[in-house]
Amino acid sequence: MKGIVKITGMLVWLCLSLAAFAQPRVDVLRCELLTNPIGIDKTNPRLSWQIRADERNVVQTAYHILVASSPEKLAQHIGDLWDSGKQISDNSISVFYDGKALKSDTEVFWKVKVSTNQGESEWSAPASWRVGLLYYKDWNRRWIGFDGYFDSDDKDAGYLSARYFRKEISLTKEVQQATAYIMGLGLYELYIDGKKIGDQVLAPGLTDYTKNVKYNVFDVTESLRGEEHALGVILGNGRYYAIRQEKPYKVKNFGFPKMQMQIRVTYTDGSQQTIHTDDTWKGTTEGPILSNNEYDGEIYDARKELRDWATVGYDDGAWRTAEYVQEPGGNYEAQLNRNMKVMQDLKAVSITTKGDGKYIIDYGQNFSGWVKMRVQGESGAKVTLRFAESLNEDGTLFRDNLRAAKATDVYVLKGDGVEEWEPRFTYHGFRYVEVEGYPGEALTDNFVGRLVYDEMETVGSFSSSNGLLNQIYTNAWWGIASNYKSIPVDCPQRNERQAWLGDRPISAYGENFMFDNANFYFKWLEDIRLSQKEDGAIPDVAPAFWRYYSDNMTWPGTYLIIADMLYQQTGDIRVLQDHYPAMKRWMHYMQARYMDDEGIITKDSYGDWCAPPATIDEGRGKSADKKYPNPLLSTAYYYHLLNMMARFSELNENGQDRVAFEQAAEKMKENFNKRFYHAAGYYGKNTLTENLLAMYFGLVEDENKEKLADRIVTIIEKENNGHLSTGVVGTQWIMRTLTDMGRSDLAYKLATNTSYPSWGYMIEHGATTIWELWNGNTAHPRMNSQNHVMMLGDLIVWYYENLAGIKSEENGFQAIVMKPELIAGLDHVDARYKSLYGEIASNWTKHKSAFEWKIVIPENAKAVVYLPAKEISSITEGNKKLSTHKDINILSADADRVKIAIGSGTYQFKTKL
């Protein structure tokens, strides 16, 4: 049988058929954890693969990689760029290219063969990656644009019309390969002969353009067949031309839209040609996109459409000569994370007719993106779409929580039959749309909702016997997806949409079980690192589109926490190597500026942000935008991060730093307890968050743990009547702290409450995502997003690691710990997670006196499993006594768990409870 190549989107999976029944096979997983293997600008990319076998306990013992400059050489087993030879190793997810120096704009081909304890595989099917432009001088040309306002712009409102650029080219030879490299700022769309290249939207990824600029790469070989062609680029504003400029002291503005592009063409005779941006391009601002603004929407006048503007022969005599403009200033980098894309279409669930010719469309789900509209009417007719998350009692749009964002799209008809339109350079957060001025009858099929987020696979699933848990998970998925906008924004609807560090420390951890978001967060860590000041300060928002450097621990500490998460979930040590110097500089900065004479870190900016009012009425109509700085929080976090840095130092083989960080942590623990511990058994002001941090971070002395645990339980059960009282800080740690204390039952109660404050309360009051505030239905609308992720805290982590029992112990799930919590009232959990090694599954059902558990462990991984059982003799696997299985190692047994070690494979356990 021949190999099968399956391409899903831009993720390339290359699968081999079995040559013999028991022979392992290899799937080339990816290069550099990439989902788009075009334009890698790393000289030592990370190579990964997955092993497939029908046997249990398959472990890789060696690998052999070949990297070649052509598919012909690779087919002959010639690795002219790198022949690793047979390497004795079980590493299958982090092998770094170690061959000859790679050259810009070249394609590289590779394959791998592995040896396992069950035999040797054949060579994998070939895979490839394209080396991007490695050096600044590879671009070798200049930026073009228009640095100024035109009659089509509205300077006072801060609106710019879209910029259109075009050029016609001639190719006199047969094309073998053509690759387009483009930097279009703030946002771009590329066209060849009138057809858009790629299915990305709102590209490229956002950065601080004075620090780095992301370029995108496209294989345009098929688009350049033949001699005559036309190139076209539309430039939108994005964040380059600042969304709001009334506060220049706060908001960064980078200038007017601009671009640099080159297309490198290789002909079949071996000769080459480069087409680039220069002053032979023509441009205009007189197109149909009259304004485009992320907060306010897009205005499109179809009467001004430039028909066939990106095709050969178009008359551009009235267009201006493109101007050479100043470059942005940042380093040019290949974008390794995917661009955004329309990921799903939603059909409206209802359209309600309102007075004055208006309609209200309900999509039944809060999400982010836009509406694709179909319309027919007279030329000049204007259709206005206004977006909102909820409705007023009278059925009109509730838009007060959008603050200054207009969230409005306008389409002016050209009057030429049926017209279809969707915006290019804006997005909205919404469930409801008010339509005004629509000619004819508004039907649901004419208004398609389009969910837009960074193109990434959903890699996790979770379901249980508790419907509320399942609905919270669904709401979380929609909220997380809605806020992936090349950076992890806080919300998609109001005039903010910033990547606040404080929103994501542990929620990002949970997200990684749901989405293939490693590249997304690798990129964001670079945004944070590049936003650091020379003295070590890290902002609260990164990229620093807002100049917020408030100097606190709980927000910038996210930098270390997410790096740790990425290392744990992917096994990529480079995330700790690359960011260690910046992390160390920040830790020293905070100590030098804010440690007092008693060894306490005094600076905290926000406190336990957005902690719930005691009752729903107490917070009615009140703004949650209040800060309660607390040195206990900053000191506790500094201690936690010192221990993290000690571990990072060890992993970076820096023993001297490790000792220094450990000693500093020991001293800080002493100082913390001296200042904040009370003999009655609590910390600080005895808030739930203060006590949780002391417990989870290990600050409490052993002899005081029991009293502290009692305080935590008393606060929840008695003082809060079985509810949480944590804000964004405390909620990051609450579920795992309770579980580690042996009170998973109490954590489960918090997760399944439907009264205020709780996740279930949000759902009871109509939420289809996660609110910014626990009292989001009654708080003042100024700061009251209905689509946030920060209050998820560690809930999703708890779902996977504690309810399902799927936790990485070592090297990105090569070693797994499976220990689900058995909680009264929860009878079934089915969770799956696609790790880099393959899918991990935990599907358990609890009966009255028995427990059934199906487990899947991927090849080249292993697991320690805690089976709930009173006796070893009561356990079977595949209807055979556990003790008869030679491939299962029984490690220990106690009163309620039997601990075993298993290798890869599918297992079906049954136990008596």
TrEMBL record:
Domain called Alpha-L-rhamnosidase C-terminal: residue spans: 805-879
Q: Where in this chain does the record put each Alpha-L-rhamnosidase six-hairpin glycosidase domain?
A: 458-803
Q: Which reaction does it catalyse?
A: Hydrolysis of terminal non-reducing alpha-L-rhamnose residues in alpha-L-rhamnosides
Q: Which keywords does the record carry? A: Hydrolase, Signal
Enzyme class, one word? hydrolase
The identity of this protein, by name, is alpha-L-rhamnosidase
Molecular function, one GO term = alpha-L-rhamnosidase activity
Output the Gene3D superfamilies linked to this UniProt entry: 1.50.10.10, Galactose-binding domain-like, Immunoglobulins, Maltose phosphorylase, domain 3
Q: Which Pfam families match?
A: Bac_rhamnosid, Bac_rhamnosid6H, Bac_rhamnosid_C, Bac_rhamnosid_N, Ig_Rha78A_N
EC number(s) stated in the UniProt entry for this protein: 3.2.1.40
- Give the organism the record lists: Sphingobacterium gobiense
> This protein's superkingdom?
Bacteria
